[in-house]
Fold this sequence. Notes:
The protein is an alpha/beta fold. The protein is elongated and about 120 Å long. The strands form five sheets. It has a six-stranded mixed sheet, sandwiched between helices. The protein has a five-stranded parallel sheet with strand order 4-3-5-6-7, sandwiched between helices. A five-stranded antiparallel sheet has the order 10-9-8-12-11. It has 18 helices and 23 strands. Residues 1-21 and 340-349 have low confidence and may be disordered. Helix 4 (83-93) packs parallel to helix 5 (108-116), helix 11 (352-363) packs across helix 12 (387-402) and helix 16 (492-507) packs parallel to helix 17 (524-532).
Amino acid sequence: MSAEFGADHVAVSIDPDANGGRSALHVMAIVADPPTLSLMQRTLSAAGDSISVASDLSEGLARTAAEAPDLVFVDVELGQNAGLAVVHHVRAIAPAVAIYALARPEALELAGQAVALGGSGMLLLPLSGDELLTAVAEVRTRKAEREDRARLEREAVVSRRGASLMQRIAEVAEARSRREGAERLAQALLEGASARRVLVYLPAGEGSRQLMRVAAVGEPLEAPSFCDDMELLGFASQYELEVMRLTLRREHCGLILLGGLPARGPGEDALPLINVVTVQAATALALIGEREQSNRGAMKDPSSSAYTFAYFVDVAGREIDKARRYGRRFALATLGIGEGPESSKNRGGREPSVEAAERVLGVVRDTDVLARVDESEFYLLLPETGGMGAHTCRRRVMRQLAGPGGLRRGDGRILEVAMGVATFPHDGGDLSQLLRVAKHRAEVSRRSVVRRLALDRLPLNELVDTLFWSFIEGDKERESSIEMPRALELPTMDVVGLAVGTVNEALRGGGARVVATQRSGMSVGAAVRSALGRDRSDVRFDAVDVSDTPGCEDLEVMVIIAEHGTYSLVGRSERGVVRALHLADPLFADLVIQRLGDAAGVRLFD
């Protein structure tokens, strides 16, 4: 126990268990009589309570408002009987506080008036320890009753919330897929736990240690699409998210991240309830997984011609095993169709995802596997396909979905389509790694300079000038991604050397498609042709002369489509120096090849 004594203030603090587990009180004494104060300090400190002392009325009112005591003792004779008015003022600023009037026997009538003004009782001076303890005990009992009532009310609220939440979790088991079940779980937790955001991660595939984000509701957050446990826990720590494990019979089934849980008082913590909910949710998701597995042999999405995600995972796993065993390649792609509820129906009243599935299936091979993940996302598996074949497939699909005759919203606007491709083994050795790369490339394509600057509406010379103005003359802030333009300014010979070196690097992964400009004198196209020679069956090279096209006389352009990616170099040559931009953007590579063909009057794409 420790105590601080001063002329105007006494604060006593003790061990919390010194009052035998009873609720400790904070007492305010607006008293100037030293013997009375000494008795109060000894008695209250022994009972485990704290006391603050004010020797004048104004200070007593100020401290009462600031400290919110449980009990106030007022000497009603202070300030020539002004203490009586203090009783009324204290009741106004602290309605729940207990007020006891202190008075000598000759001022008994004054104490009675204090009780009439809202006081809880009166004590005659000089005080005895028993009288003081009796008054404190009554206040302590009333405080304990209030706390019990408040606790019961909180528990009732939690119970009602828990019953409602458990009912919602029971509906998770009725979902058609684990993804749909995870979305129902996330929405239930968002509302039931009053969180601001909820993310659900499940294993990317059977036996996989990689986790995939399958549901995200509430306030947006740039969360990883694929990651392992440690990466996800680091992410949760960075953004102060609560982590709840989905566990069934000691088996790790996934993670739930909750952000922005409201601050709660004692007995109001939502986490114990959420822990119980996650156990039920893990069971429900496991049942869905068993149901999916039992029907994988012929699982088709009920609303489109595509397969389900579960079937896709099964086929992709077999394809990975076959590719590893026989040293083969294959590719997969992720395809995002539009964003938000405004894209839910097209002009014909059909879901865009249904029409998208039909269009994609119309341009891919019969052996390719298209799976519908949700209303706005598809995965496409391309067996026996390398990077160049996947790039060709991506171009055909994008032409079907995002071209002039592409998918449209109800208001007639073309829906945004984002597609990313990954190949085995260049981009990863398991399904989760490949999907992570493909999703990243799809997201990057949404920010492509082709979309941001509307380059697809421009001829070749205007395309180059617009790009230069935006990323060199305009000096706009650039992203660190390799898909974004980067500027260079080098002598022509150095640029030629860079071009030849880039082509040689591309050929290390296998075959390649190279398109470059060629004109009289030293040029990128002439140097690349010389470096490739004549006997390269694995390379298709097209040299395009656009020097007669207005605005293209000084262009130096090269585009490479290789097994492990694309590369574009676009610049202008003047007095032996080339100012150029280079980037690894598949959309831009396709557009430049198309514009080179337009300018030269030749067809460069089949």
